[in-house]
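Bench log. Compound arrived from synthesis this morning; before running ITC I wanted a structural hypothesis for how copper (II) ion sits in the protein. Inputs:
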Amino acid sequence: MSDNSRRSFLHRLAAGGAVLALGAPVLSACRSSDSTGSPDPDPPTPVDGRFRLRFAPEVSPSSLTLTAAAGTANIGSTNAAAWMLNGSLPSPLIRARRGDRFAVTMRNQLPQDLILHWHGLTAPEHSDGHPRFAVPPGGTYEYDFDVTDRAGTYWYHSHTHMHTGEHTYKGIAGLLLVQDAEEEALQLPSGARELPLILQDRRLDATGAPVYNNTGPAMMAGVMGAEPFVNGVHKAFVDVDSALYRLRLLNGSNARIFRLARSDNAPFVLIGGDGGLLPAPVTLTSMDLAPAERADILLDLRALQMGTRVMLRSLPFNMQGGMGFMGGANLQGQALDLLEFRVTRAVSDQAAIPTSLPPVSLPNAALSVRERRFVFESFQMNHTINGREFVMTRDDVVVPFGETEIWTFENASGLPHPVHLHATHFQVLSRSGGRGQVMPWETGRKDTVLLHPFESVRVAVQFTEQSGLFLLHCHNLEHEDMGMMVNVRVTTFPMSTHSSPTSP
Ligand SMILES: [Cu+2]
């Protein structure tokens, strides 16, 4: 056990009375960093028809080695093959402070090329995980940069071209939490009251193991499954106090959109999104979370009696203008019971829900010097942006560093597309078609925005941290793997001195 995970372990022991009170599950609080393949120290034991939630080991990004290899993971309902980093499903949770050095050695012991992308961090070009940097089996890759982003819920995953969907589904994905003084001043729930949660759907084979099948209808809709997974555990539950909890939620699914809600219909308070805290807290009874989007939520369980159970659900929905169920293969919009909270200890919790949040720096749309349009189309198993599929070495878009632009993402198809931009965050300005509005959970710094069928979304974009070659793509991972991605070159010189025949 590393020092860091031991600290985490002790912290959870101190704060996690609910865990201790139950006796046997003490080990469930242990977050081992053991990468030797020894027996799982944190098994998702069955209780009452569901399986105890597991937490990934916590690691620091300064001088970290992540070794990717195939192995076996206990998913609660069975043991299943998985591709893991340091033998952990999900991948280790990287906890950093703003200003930390991010020095990570990735060792690839998988049978395929691999590169990792730090989703939401504004890493320099060499460390951003562009697929042209993927290393072959047996190879290593060195990441080295300073964490400049504000506190927030970020994550990381494979970005190997044409294999991102498979790798992420098989387990190469983890959370990356950044802390800073500004956020710490809010005294949000921490330790055992902060739950990092990766929400995913999976399809199971006859043995009960997740199976990745990106053929047939999945080539249009993306890979989905009818079974809920949280932190790599099938049908998970977690024992909690009657207290205020901070949920760090990631939709780590390949293609499925969640409509999150409590089973008791009580509200929750959204305080953060993709790029850290929102400009103001938002009280909601449900919210949508598309693949790659994050939500930082305060879940108030203080009024609940011992023995109460509350489910974090994904509600059923129909997507206006959508392509429907495609012969029953498309599970989009079907209900899922994601995670059950079981109140096992009554406590008095004086934690406060903030009524205001620190100001957020966003691009100023009034300063825009240029507009661009990106049309996302899906037609007969082809997924294109402005009519083209990804080419590794082609500069599709050339953007001057520091200039503010307005980009329109236009969905010309009957499928949803979560659009993700590397190397900066953007502000969602407006939406036309479909829902016709900026949704209440889209107010802060965003790196991923969902387009429903035939929606157009306007965003303000400004690259203020990095120059170099980056990416804009659909985060439906099957769409991305089939080429719904463009290269974005951020230059350090003004547009007038450079012309690119391919720039839209
Ligand atoms: Cu897409």
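What the model suggests: Residues 1-38, 497-504 have pLDDT under 50 and may be disordered. DSSP finds six helices and 33 strands in the chain.
ITC booked for Thursday regardless.
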